[in-house]
Amino acid sequence: MSANSVNISVETTCENQIREIGYDGTELYQPPPTLSESLAKCAARIDFSKTSLDDLKKEEKSATEAEESRDKDGNQFQESLWPWDAVRNKLKDAFTEICVLSDVISIAKDKRYLVLDPLLEDGDDTKPIVQVYSRKKAISQAAQVLLGGAERLRNAHSEQRSRNISDFHIELLRLRQNWRLKKVSNAIIGDLSYRTAGSKFNMSGTFEVTKAEELADDDQLQGQNSSSSSSSTANGMPIKAASALRVIVPAELQGVAYIKVITQKDQEDLCSAQVNLMGHGPNITAQVGVWQKTLEFAQNVLFCKELFAQLAREAIQLQAPIPHVVIGNQIRATLLPNIQLIISLCHSTTFDSSQPAPINDHDHVLEHSLHQLLREVHYKNSHHPFPHPSSAPLGPSKKRMMAGPMAADRETLMDMTKSQTILEQIIAQAQHIFMRKRTQYVLDTLARDVKDPQIVSHWNAMNSPTMSCVKINIVTHGYDAIGRTSLVIHVKERSLKCICRDGRVMRLSYEPQELRDLILCQINSHQISCLVSLARCMAWTVLSNSNHLGIGKVEPLGNASSCLLASPNGDRMIAVQIRCDPQIDVKVYIAKSPRQDFFPNPLVPEKLWENLGGSFKEVRFDKIEGKSFLNKMEFLMASLTSNTA
Amino acid sequence: MAMASVSSARESLQHALTNRFLPNLEYLLQGSILDSAVEHLMHRLKGLCDNVDTSPEPFHDLEVCMSLRQPNSNQPLLLRVRRAMDRDAPMQMRYLGQPEVDQRRPTLVRSCMDCACTNGILDFLTEMGFRLEFEYLAKGYMFRKGRMKITVSKLIKIVHGKQQDMANEPISQSYIVELSVVAPTGQENVGEEMRVFAEQLKPLVQLEKIDYKRLGPMP
């Protein structure tokens, strides 16, 4: 201790807080906190969740500040009963947290139930104002793009040809509704072939769609068009100010085509076939009216080409008794002797109607049939039957599927693979049409020529392309109830089948004379059978009748039919003979009994032999009154019936 | 007329196998879709597949799986017999082999033999010693695209003792979608073709190859 130092004693104020002031002024002091109490107070202030010293300092500062303000205010309560309670709770919480943390870490280390993944680092929290600025910039860029597009549209709209531009898009929409389109780089390519419908033809049917150019530049651009349209790959066409749209079809599909089908008779020379030029000249045809028509015509050309190619291939492969001939764009097939079917592909790229008219009429029905047949081939190519049950293999037809379980033999399986080609089918149909026409002609001429029994033919309304039926009734006018002969004729491709009422079936060939002869024979037997029925009505007895008399000259056509009638009281006899050689020829004879010219003579002395009946005398049948054969016979029988018993 | 030499059935089968035109491999992709979404899938398939005008083709089949314990091996021989309930068609018997273990292939590949048979097949198999393993009804629609067959079907559990179809309850609230091709061996691009098609059906249905071993043994 130095002499100059001053002793400073530091003392606490030692003032305790006043707890209570009595009425008499005495002050009751709060006893100062004991050591344990002060320790408790200090310990309570420790916050175990704070780790760094800075935090602690801050805490202290704020705590002391709070305490000072609280001290200034006044009373300070000691709330907890047990001062260490808070401390204990805080320690316990801390312990629990540490335990959990250690558990989690041990589980995570095991990596079986819990895996720790690194978190993506959060970007620094930028200030909101920066975000606002960046968003504003982005939105303004987007707005610029939209405004630019809107400006373009507005300009396009406000131009003179605003109508035509919208036409392009609307027309493109309509085109898309009808045809398959696809965008390839700059150009729009379409497909008009039948490939998706099942066709296997390898000619491409692609077309190109562009905006139509202005009229002033037409020639120049048409030159460009023709050079670029020969190949149907994508070309970037210069798109000028547009009107409607234009389609460019490949050169080989331009123009109009159809398949001409002609049935010709007696064409001797084959070399005079009409061969149409296919016209690969300059691109004269522009648009045929609207684009729809152009595309339809082009599609039709493609279809006709496919059809003709298929027919030509079959014509060469098939082996017919008279071989088919393929010349240029014509196919000749023989239907019947001297009758030929000529199928030609007529493709015209010019539109002048200076072509000569065909020799015979073009048969629209057969052309339509050809189209249908090819479509059927397409359909069969694409539509295969679905397997039932669903685990069965895809592909085999229903018959093939049944062939296994139903134990089909080799023959049946081979038959399943056979199918008729288009050419065979169309030849069959053409033959049938021809047979039908011929049959109709024969029946109609007979009906016209033969007046006496009437020949009525009823053709079936429903028939197939290769078979028709006709029912023929032979009646005599006025005597319908007496008798009617009917027969059914099935007209097939090269033959006829005739079924008579009595069950006889006759097969006739394609010669018309055979049918004529048949009908004449039927007329014969009709007359006789009606006569027989008529005689019964008139009470005459039918002694005999025959359909095949073997008497007289040998006829080219069958035999005569005959009938022998006797009057009710037996005194007259009528004999009728009908021949058709070739006209129907009726001979009627009458006999009287007893005979007038019987005189008994030494050889035949008795008188009773006069009853044997006399000789037959011919009647001049054509002079007898009567509208028809039966009518005349009726009158004859009536006149010969005598009153006497 | 030349007569072809008559060969035995065994020879023809051998010939078909060596020349690789007998289809004996099935390539399969499977997936499922909830009932609520199946209409969208049907619409999509109708647009993607062949023959828009006639699709979809409904079917209603009963499949019965028969098994025969073999003395030599642990695995029983399984044969599936399928019958169309809604129309008159022969029953189909099918043998499916074990799937090929090949991770690189995008589809499940297993050997498959189909055969049409008469109605007495179930009795015949029972007489041979086969026993019924399981059976179920499959009712749905089928589509085709080229050689691929796509079926969308609901599997229905058969409750014995009840006659009506109404009584049979579906196994789940979803439809099973299967894409399959049956082709001879040696065709390389079948799997690729199927995978490309399956891509077009995402995200409606995820068609993938299902590893049967991971599903566990059959009960």
Automatic annotation (TrEMBL), chain A:
Region (Disordered): 57-76, 214-235
Compartments (UniProt record): Nucleus
Gene Ontology MF terms: DNA-binding transcription factor binding; transcription coactivator activity
Alphabetic keyword roster: Nucleus, Transcription, Transcription regulation
Record flagged with keyword Transferase: no
Comp. bias (Basic and acidic residues): 57-74
Cellular component terms (Gene Ontology): core mediator complex; mediator complex; pericentric heterochromatin
Any single GO BP term: positive regulation of transcription by RNA polymerase II
Entry similarity comment: Belongs to the Mediator complex subunit 17 family.
Protein name per UniProt: Uncharacterized protein
Organism encoding this protein: Drosophila willistoni
Lineage: Eukaryota, Metazoa, Ecdysozoa, Arthropoda, Hexapoda
Gene name per UniProt: Dwil\GK11248
TrEMBL record, chain B:
GO annotation, cellular component aspect: core mediator complex; mediator complex
Keyword Transcription assigned: yes
One example GO MF annotation: transcription coregulator activity
Keyword annotations of the record: Activator, Nucleus, Transcription, Transcription regulation
InterPro entries for the chain: Mediator_Med18
Cellular localisation: Nucleus
Predominant place of localization: nucleus
Gene3D superfamilies (alphabetical): Hypothetical Protein Pfu-838710-001
Signal peptide location: none
Biological processes, Gene Ontology terms: regulation of transcription by RNA polymerase II; termination of RNA polymerase II transcription
Lineage top rank: taxon: Eukaryota
Pfam families xref list: Med18
Function in brief: Component of the Mediator complex, a coactivator involved in the regulated transcription of nearly all RNA polymerase II-dependent genes. Mediator functions as a bridge to convey information from gene-specific regulatory proteins to the basal RNA polymerase II transcription machinery. Mediator is recruited to promoters by direct interactions with regulatory proteins and serves as a scaffold for the assembly of a functional preinitiation complex with RNA polymerase II and the general transcription factors.
Family per record: Belongs to the Mediator complex subunit 18 family.
Subunit text: Component of the Mediator complex.
Protein name: Mediator of RNA polymerase II transcription subunit 18
Organism: Drosophila willistoni (Fruit fly)
